[in-house]
Amino acid sequence: MRAAATQLAEQFDRAADRYDLLTRLNPGYHRALRDAARGLVDRLRGAGTSGRPPTLWDLGCGSGLSTEALLQAAGQDARVVGLDASEGMLAQARAKDWPDGVRFVHAVAQDLPEVAARELDGPADGAFAAYLLRNVPEDQRDDVVRAIGEQVRPGGWVALQDYHVKGDRVAGAVWTLVCWGVVMPLAVVVRGNPTIYRYLWRSVLDNDSTAELTGRLTRAGFTDVAWSTAGGWQRGILHTVLARRPG
Hints:
Layout: H1 2-24, H2 29-49, E1 55-59, H3 65-74, E2 79-84, H4 87-94, E3 102-106, H5 112-119, E4 124-130, H6 141-150, E5 152-163, H7 169-189, H8 194-206, H9 210-219, E6 223-229, E7 238-244
Helix pairs in contact: 1-4, 2-3, 7-8
C-alpha cells in the first residue's frame, strides 16, 4: 500500500508545475472550492467560533488552492495546516505568499493522527478535504474518515469535496467525455503529465458513490450530513458534503 501511495505521489510531483494552470482552465473549479470553504466556515461560526480565528485542517491541500479558499472564507488570521503526500505539490504551495498562521506538512492522510499530535495542541475547529478520499485505498477510507472526525473538536464540522459519479450513468458519461475530450488533450498541450489525468478519470469512476460516503460518515459518528452539487458541467458530478462531529 505504501509503495502504491509513493508511486501516486510521484505522478502528482510530475504534474505539480502545471496543476494551477490546468485548474484555471476548468470552468467552476475555483468557485466550487470557495463555495465549499464558505459553507464550512459559516457552519463553524454558527457553532461558536465567531469572534476568534478558527483552526482548520486542509487535507490533500495540493498546491494550496484549497488553502487560499479557506483563508478567503475564514480570514487571513485563520490557522491552517495543509497536508499532502506530494512533495512537488507542496513545493508549489510553499512558494506562494501566506500569512503566519499557515503551514504545510508532507504526509499521507492515513498518518493524520500522528501528524496532529505534532502540529496542533488539540483538535481543530474544522477540516476541509478536496479530492482526497478517492486517492485513499477503499479498504482504508473508513479509517481516514474516522481519523478526520477525531481531529475535529466536538461540535466542529468537516467539508469533503470530490467527484462522485458511481451509479449515475449520465454523470459517468459526461465525466468520461470531459476527461478524454478536454482534460487529457490540454494536459498534453501544456506538458502537464497526462498520466495523472488518466488516473484521475479512472479514480473518479471507482470513487465512492454519495450513498457510500454517507455511510462512512455515519459509521464514523458524524451527524447533520448535507450534500450539494456544483453548477455548470459539474452538476451531478462534483459534490460537497458537510457533516458535524456531535458536541
